[in-house]
Amino acid sequence: MNLSIHFRLLLAASLVLTAFLGLTGVALDKAFRSSAEKALRESLQASVYALLAAAGEDDLGRLTMPEILSDPRFNLPDSGFYAEVHSPDISFGWRSASAVGRHLNIGKPSVEPGDRRFDQVRSGNGGEVVALSFGVSWEDFDGVETRYVLSVVEDMQPHQVQISAFRNTLFYWLDGAALVLLLAQGGVLRWGLFPLRKVSDELSDIESGGSDQLKGVYPQELTGLTDSINSLIRQAQSRQQRYRDSLGDLAHSLKTPLAILQSMADQPETGDRNENRQLADQVDRMNQIVSHQLQRAAASGRSTLSRTIPVVAAVERIAKTLNKVYLEKGIRWELDLPDDLGFSGDEGDLMEFMGNLMDNAWKYGSQQVRVSGLATGDGIELHVEDDGAGIPQAQAESVLQRGRRMDEQQPGQGIGLAVVSDIISAYGGELIVGKSVLGGADLVALIPNH
Q: Following DSSP, what letter does each residue of 28-95 receive, concatenated?
């Protein structure tokens, strides 16, 4: 799976943030529950002490409880706050007014004097209650000690509502914080990765021919990379220029002796006329071979760092020139090309292969030629059609074979198509020979984007 750096970093940061906020939420929730439970125990303990302080004595010095307590919650029926006192030694039982008619289901806990017992049970009414029982030893006037257990019981529903409200608030704010942090980290990542996107955009601009080097100011971490890329681009441009200069020198050095040989062969007074004709044919073949091989070598040395050439303007120039050359044929030509159709490459290459294709169409077409094209998802597609005899399928493969010598080409339509195929192949494209609806050949150039 080819994931972008931005997506990978955002995904990793999101997972870490989610895990961190999740653990934070669980920890805070647990801490709040623990704190609430501790506060509840302390509150119940204070209520037990208040209950013990409210206890009185009867005539024998035994423990008695008043009907009305200072804490009003003990006096209101079904208030959610209850008190009970019982003795494991004697028959004694007391309940606060709030506990009348309530089945608290805490039983009669056995607690030694001075000890505490904390219970959380489900009451007879279906709700949960929490109880704190405290054991005391009460000495009467005769010096007899009697054990008592004082229990304070509280309904858990208010505390559960409080905990639930806290949890909802907590996770609401954590969700909000997560959203804000995700947006913030997305912005930070976008800002941090902006130099990489800028490098990519500049490289695309260089590839399309809009620029010849990386010109932006980049962070220190990318300076070495951008400098190396610029150095490679300069070296490639320098090598390409030296290559073309060498080809030009070679062509110039070969043309002179070939021209001399051609001139000698054209002089009727020099040697046998039949020999002169044979010499002229061989010189012409040598000229074609040299031109073909130089075109192949130039095509193989093309660079992708070229500007985008408008196809319409180039094709119109070629069509007007060919219309003058083949004026006597009266060719009707038609162009069907989008105005924004562009060729990302060398303008000379475009003129060379389109000129060759269109020259064949004008030369071997009868009355009509059509040049059309369109931009595909991954490149451009150019069609040159005529209403001539076409190219037989048996010859279609041979005229497009790369590296074939010109003297191996079939006569008639197809001369020079090997050069066209070499140029298009240098751009990773393909030249296809088909049948046109006009009746002749349909030469299709498929050229991908760099």
A: HHHHHHHHHHHHHHHHHHHHHHHHHHT-EE-TTS-EE--SS-SSGGGTSTT-SEEEEEE-SSSS-EEE
SS3 of 176-198: the string is: HHHHHHHHHHHHHHHHHCHHHHH
The CA distance from 356 to 364, in Å, is 12
Read off the tokens for 247: 């080809």
**Which residue, 132, 82, 139, 130, is CA-closest to 111?**
132
- Cα–Cα distance, 66 to 70 (Å, whole number): 10
Tally of residues, the chain: 450
Separation between Cα atoms, residue 72 and residue 96, nearest integer Å = 11
d(CA 450, CA 441): 28
User: In degrees rounded to 5, what are phi and psi of residue 200?
Assistant: -60, -45
| DSSP string for residues in 321-357 | HHHHHTGGGT-EEEEE--TT-EEES-HHHHHHHHHHH
Cβ burial of 101 (10 Å; 0-12, 13-18, 19+) is exposed
Mean pLDDT of the chain: 82
Report the predicted TM-score, pTM, of the whole model to 2 decimal places.
0.51
Lowest mean pLDDT among 38-42, 62-66, 181-185, 259-263: 259-263
CA distance 183 to 198: 22
54 versus 290: which is more confidently predicted?
54
Closest listed residue to residue 31, CA positions, set 130, 166, 178, 131 = 166
Question: Dihedrals φ, ψ of 161, to 5°?
Answer: -65, -40
Q: What percent of the chain has pLDDT over 70?
A: 83
CB atoms within 10 A of CB 384: 27
Rounded CA gap, 35 and 163, in Å? 11
Report how far apart the first and last C-alpha atoms of the chain are (Å, whole number): 23
